Amino acid sequence: MNKAARFIKQALIIMFSLIWFLTITVSARGQDPDDLLRQKGIVLPALPGRLGSYTAVVRSGNLLYLSGKGPVRADGSDVTGKLGKDLDISEGYAAARLCGLAQLSALKENLGKLSRIKQIIKVTGFVNGTDSFYGQPMVMDGYSDLMTEIFGTRGIHARSAVGVAALPKGWPVEVEMIVEIGP
Questions:
Q1: pLDDT tens profile 9-51
Q2: What is the DSSP string of 54-104?
Q3: Are the beta carbons of 71 and 139 closer than 8 angstroms?
Q4: Is 38 helix (H, G, I), strand (E, B) or coil?
Q5: Structural domain of residue 65, as residue ranges?
Q6: Domain count, the chain
Q7: pTM strictly above 0.85
Q8: Beta-sheet strands, E only, within the chain
Q9: Which of 30, 81, 163, 178 is most exposed, with the fewest beta carbons within 10 Å of its own?
């Protein structure tokens, strides 16, 4: 794919993300997140096992700190590959969305119901890419768009998108987040 075609593809992804963001922010306002997931036919995956000596969620006051999650398909298999080599931005976007579903599973298991989430505060995404891959923000939009799709304005968050040389299990993306909860 030549530079002009890549630029057009990336511009279309950005435009789609903006339209999607505006649409879902309006549509999700005031709806119960669990009901919205059911209405959209989104099934949360089973939580994968830990890869080390840590816990999935730590609570401090009204904040939940979630450990990083990678992209796991509905069948339990991992998405693997390096952005800019094995995967393109749209595939990375889909992988980041899967990371979001895994985080929602951890939240649901911890809280019982997603309506207790008051605000998604901070998201940090690690994107496994080549040295010349600079599309980390567009990949991470897959995660961010999911959070606003499900939580509306409560899903809008601060975010970092960091390029890395490798991730556990060969994942293309891993995401951690901080969430404020209510009663």
A1: 776 777 666 665 555 544 455 689 999 999 999 999 888 777 7
A2: --SEEEETTEEEEEEE--B-TTSPBP---BTTTB-HHHHHHHHHHHHHHHH
A3: no
A4: helix
A5: 3-181
A6: 1
A7: no
A8: 57-60, 63-69, 117-128, 158-164, 173-181
A9: 30
